[in-house]
Design goal:
The complex is a heterotrimer of chains A (622), B (163) and C (104). Chain A is mainly α and 622 residues long. In chain A, helix 3 runs antiparallel to helix 10 and helix 5 packs antiparallel against helix 6. The mean pLDDT of chain A is 82. The relative contact order of chain B is 0.07. Chain C is elongated. With 104 residues, chain C is mainly alpha-helical. Chain C has a single domain, classed as Helix Hairpins, CATH 1.10.287.3510. The longest helix of chain C is centred in the C-terminal third of the chain and has 36 residues. Chain C starts with a helix and ends in a 13-residue tail after the last helix. Classes of the chains: A mainly alpha (622), B mainly alpha (163), C mainly alpha (104). The interface between A and C is medium-sized, with 12 and 13 residues.
Chain lengths: 622, 163, 104
């Protein structure tokens, strides 16, 4: 059973990290072939595991190593392969492989190339272990490692102050969520005595955990997911993370790390379902993030920022779907969005390469003629995320809307439809600004298509963007009856008579308005800005959230830190530690004053001493 | 009856004591000391210790006071005004009153109930002194000798030593 | 006539002596106050000797101790005088306020 060798996938990535970081500079090609071999190995192994899984009709296989045994409790590194982890495994191995191939071209000539690929391997290893982990402690361990990899990669060009600041911001913001996750894990451990996920879910379903513990641990775990998946109000790190290299954004901030939060919720969904009303809160957070980020994405002018806010928005959509109970639909969109967003980011990287690193959309334009392959693949990615038939995005969006309607009712459905409109609109706006019309600057005039090693991944991903929709249908592969049934056996993907046309109509409306506004300039796009001037500035400055956070940090965190540092210096150090030494040194100078040399002083002291001794003697002997 | 005499002697003693510590003139202080010694001898008599009363008068009244008067003469203390109490006299008063309180408490708590006075036979006293306490007696005389020699040594002038 | 009279008298005299030792400026006067204290002790001992109900050996002890105390008092007086005379020779007065060479 090849699933027992699933641990080789993350293991080989970690070994590649060690070898590349230690010996990379000395090897030929700076050692970058090692992580790529590891990624390829991972993908091939995934294919074997997948085929085995489909044919064997066994739902879960596990393997574990005892790491630490304390009394009758042991800490294990366990790997378990079930439907959700197979899906994530495939996504992560494939996108990681594709992005690494792309990076050969994008990052060529960078002085720290071997370190870049080494951290890529580390990140891939950590993420793969995270999706294979069967106990919460191991999952948390990999969670933190993934955050570390993200920090190292965002701040890869640490010579730029903005990059190191962004890396710091990402790490600290997700850290806030991670604290919640740890508290949740510990709460569950206290209640059940184990970290093993199936055991915990089993215990929760049998009512072995008290309601308040369940509620608090659910809230805490959701906080962890919110941090990693950039939900409001933890979303502030993702746009700044665009300071990192673009392939990094494609891998980490589109397809893999940010979906770790979604994965966590999907894993713990049986637990979260038990708490009454909790899933509604999850859905509300997701909905708010979906609309909030969508509106901001409409006014951003930097390519990567638009894509970043779009990612935040779609993550919100996935969480919203999970909150509605649509596990299969959310997982499907996770895969579709992963491929499409990675395609879009890699395409943006190609555009930036052609534009000499320029990212402002208003300086581009008309690149359709200069970079034809990039432009076509980018269009496929945009249409897929906008939800136009017959691309994969249409299928996933449709299923999500059906699930939301089933789970939460029509109000949520119509709110989501508004978000779908925004999503379609900003995607098309982005495409039009970059590729259509006339070029708006000299750099755009002189741009060129990128090298084949960068084009090839774009082509592969766009192929998936076209064809992934087929997974929703039953295919002749073992007993595969469609993706929905694969994940959740009660669920079949289907088409609803009124939701599907409605969603398609909304998406097409966004498409048409977008083309008319930005592509063919039939509607002037400054219209909205002029009519709703104040609202426009508000959205453009991202609702001042970043400034608000900075104010909180300045006023509360830094002043508390100052107070604590003064307290530590004055009370603990000067008085407590130094004080003892100083008092010993100074005490003789004070004690010396009792030796006056005068007779009556000595006599009085003697008298008082004798008095005291007599009193003591009387008291003791009585 | 003996209480009456005791009271007189006690009065002399205490008056003399206060005179020693409070006198303005140094010779008055010395004479008050003499009065204290005499009064103490009277108390000894009332306590049926006749031999000791004699010893007291001889040694204290005869020798000690004279020595003190000699010291007063030799140090020409009457030429200088030091007889006021020094500036720490309230503290001294407090200490002495606390001692007094301590003594009063310990006396009154352990009150003895014997009221029969009985004196000591002189021959018995002699026997005790020379038989049971012979060694301390010899040592005391040795101490006296050494003290006197030491006093002479301390007082010698330097030019006499260098001769 | 009870023992307590002797004890009270001794206590009062002793305290007067202590006051004198601590509150007087002249060394000779301090010496005189020390003599007062010794006398107080003697009175106390005589009282114990008189009222004792123990055997002869212990009864005599009170008076024997008084003899010893008188002896030692005389010795100490001699030495103290010697020191005072020496002091007078060096500083031309016997004011104890000025004796603070051992000041720390």
């Amino acid at each position: 059973m090849s699933a027992e060798y699933a641990w080789v996938i993350p293991g080989s990535a970690v070994i590649a990290f060690c070898l590349t970081s230690l010996f990379g500079k000395a090897l030929p090609f700076k050692g970058i072939f090692l992580p790529i071999i590891a990624a390829l190995l991972g993908f091939i192994l995934f294919c074997f595991i997948f085929i085995d899984f489909m044919l064997a009709d066994v739902s879960v296989t596990t393997a574990s190593i005892d790491w630490m045994v304390v009394g009758d409790w042991s800490l294990t590194w366990g790997f378990s392969v079930d439907e959700i982890s197979i899906v994530m495994l495939g996504l992560v191995t494939f996108i990681s492989l594709v992005v690494q191939v792309y990076s050969i071209g994008y990052m060529s000539g960078d002085p720290r190339l071997s370190w870049y690929f080494a951290v890529h391997a580390l990140f891939a290893g950590a993420m793969l272990a995270l999706v294979l982990a069967d106990n919460l402690l191991f999952l948390y361990f990999c969670w933190e490692l993934v955050g570390l990899g993200s920090y190292l990669l965002i701040g890869f060009w640490f010579e730029k102050k903005a990059a190191s600041e962004a890396a710091k911001k990402a790490f600290i913001t997700t850290r806030l969520g991670d604290v919640g996750l740890l508290i949740g894990i510990i709460l569950l451990f206290k209640a059940t005595g184990t970290f093993h996920i199936p055991s915990i879910i089993h215990a929760a379903q049998n009512g072995a955990i008290s309601e308040s513990t369940l509620m608090w641990s659910s809230i805490m775990i959701f906080l962890g997911a919110m941090g990693k998946s950039a939900q409001f109000p933890f979303h502030v790190w993702l746009p700044d993370a665009m300071e990192g290299p673009t392939p990094v954004s494609a891998l980490i901030h589109a397809a893999t790390m940010v979906v770790a939060g979604v994965y966590l919720i999907a894993r713990m969904l049986p637990l979260l379902e038990i708490v009454p009303g909790f899933l509604t809160i999850v859905a509300l957070v997701g909905l708010f993030t979906f609309l909030f980020a969508g509106i901001i994405a409409l006014v951003m002018t930097d390519i990567k920022k638009v894509l970043a806010y779009s990612t935040i928005s779609h993550l919100g959509l996935m969480i919203l779907t999970l909150g509605a109970g649509g596990l299969a639909a959310a997982m499907f969109h996770l895969v579709v969005h992963g491929f499409s967003k990675a395609l879009l980011f890699l395409g943006a990287g190609s555009v930036m390469h052609g534009m000499n690193g320029e990212t402002d959309c208003w300086k581009m334009g008309g690149l359709r003629r200069k970079m034809s392959v990039t432009s076509v693949t980018f269009l496929i990615g945009c249409l897929s995320l906008a939800g136009i038939i017959p691309l994969s995005g249409f299928f996933s969006k449709d299923e999500m809307l059906i699930a939301i309607n089933d789970g939460l009712g029509p109000i949520f459905l119509f709110a989501t439809l508004a978000g779908v409109f925004f999503s379609s609109l900003y995607m098309i706006r982005l495409y039009c600004l970059i590729f259509m019309g006339r070029s708006r600057s000299d750099v755009a005039n002189n741009s060129h298509e990128s090298t084949p090693v960068m084009i090839f991944p774009l082509l592969v991903l766009s192929l998936f963007g076209l064809l992934l929709g087929l997974l929703a249908l039953p295919l002749p592969l073992g007993n595969f009856e469609g993706f929905g049934n694969f994940i959740d056996s009660h669920h079949h993907f289907h088409i609803s008579p009124w939701i599907t046309p409605l969603s398609l109509g909304v998406a097409l409306a966004g498409l048409i308005i977008g083309f008319m506004c930005y592509g063919y300039s039939k509607i002037p796009h400054e219209l909205v800005a002029m009519k709703f001037g104040y609202l426009y500035t508000l959205v453009l400055s991202k609702f001042y959230i970043d400034e608000f956070y900075q104010w909180i940090i300045d006023k509360m965190v830094l002043s508390t830190a100052r107070f604590v540092s003064i307290f530590d210096r004055v009370v603990v150090n000067d008085t407590g530690v130094d004080g003892i030494g100083v008092s010993v040194v100074l005490s003789p100078f004070k004690a010396r004053l009792t030796q006056t040399g005068k007779l009556y002083n000595y006599g009085t002291a003697m008298g008082v001493g004798i008095l005291f001794m007599a009193v003591m003697w009387i008291l003791v002997s009585s | 009856m003996s209480v009456f005499f005791f009271a007189i002697a006690a009065f002399i003693v205490i008056a003399g004591g206060i005179g020693v510590v409070a006198a303005r003139n140094i010779v008055y202080a010395a004479l008050s000391l003499l009065a204290v010694m005499v009064g103490t001898a009277g108390i000894f008599l009332i306590g049926l210790a006749e031999f000791l009363a004699l010893v007291q008068l001889l040694i204290y009244g005869g020798a000690v006071v004279i020595v003190i008067l000699f010291a007063l003469m030799l140090t020409r203390i009457q030429d200088f005004e030091f007889l006021s109490a020094n500036k720490h006299w309230p503290l001294a008063l407090i200490v002495s009153i606390s001692f007094l309180v301590l003594f009063l408490i310990s006396i009154l708590v352990n009150k003895r109930t014997i009221t029969e006075m009985s004196g000591v036979d002189i021959s018995e006293l002699g026997l005790t002194l020379f038989a049971d306490w012979a060694i301390p007696f010899e040592l005391a005389s040795l101490v006296l000798l050494i003290a006197l020699i030491g006093a002479v040594v301390v007082v010698r002038r330097d030019n006499e030593e260098n001769r | 006539m009870e023992l307590i009279y002797f004890q009270l008298l001794a206590a009062i005299l002793f305290c007067i002596g202590i006051y004198g030792v601590l509150a007087r400026k002249s060394a000779v006067l301090i010496l005189m106050s020390i003599e007062l204290m010794l006398n107080a002790v003697n009175i106390n001992l005589i009282g114990y000797a008189a009222f004792s109900s123990l055997g002869a050996a212990h009864k005599n002890l009170g008076q024997v101790l008084v003899i010893f105390i008188i002896t030692i008092a005389a010795a100490e007086l001699a030495l103290a005088m010697a020191i005072i005379l020496r002091l007078y020779r060096n500083k031309n007065n016997v004011n104890v306020d000025e004796l603070d060479i051992l000041k720390g």
